[in-house]
Amino acid sequence: MFWSACKYLGITGTASIVSGSPLTVSFPITGGSLNSALSGFILHEGSGVSLTGGSNTLGLSNFIIDTVSQRILGDASLNGSLIANDLSLFTFDLSSVTAAQLTDLSSPSLSLFFTPGAASALTQVFGAPDLAGVQFGLAATGPSVAAVPEPASWAMLICGFGLVGVVARRRQARTVVTS
Questions:
Q1: The pLDDT of residue 20
Q2: Most C-beta atoms within 10 A of its C-beta, which of 93, 98, 109, 130?
Q3: Segments making up each domain of the chain, as ranges
Q4: 136 neighbors 22 (Cβ within 8 angstroms)
Q5: d(CA 40, CA 33)
Q6: Is this model's pTM higher than 0.85 or not?
Q7: Cα–Cα dist 152/160, whole Å
């Protein structure tokens, strides 16, 4: 099995391991852009994981969750040297979970699967069997990733504020008392 070839799992940057079973790794959200349909991307820059087995350490970091293509991309390094930027690491299927399940950090429900490229790298580095399409783990995202309003929504909001301002001005003009 892959995990027997990989003797050590580490975290890098701002990632943290959450105590409990199963093992949970948390990656802070550093940016992104999602619309009301959750289409867009989420950034996890400056954090990652490292997998060590034998004399090799494979680092995966700076994750980009692309909800449109339903892939997780990341930078890969081998023994401290960058080997690829924005490598397609995992795939997922958003239609398999509800919004409530997606944001339930206590019970992650979104399955992550190794891409053929990531599986090939694991085979080359650790001698792992072909893991293409094999489930890596489960994911969830914190409710802090709120849907970002679309331009039409912003326009309506601005018009609404403008209308409130006009009404307030008219009321102020009517209540002017002369002595």
A1: 67
A2: 109
A3: 1-139
A4: no
A5: 6
A6: no
A7: 12
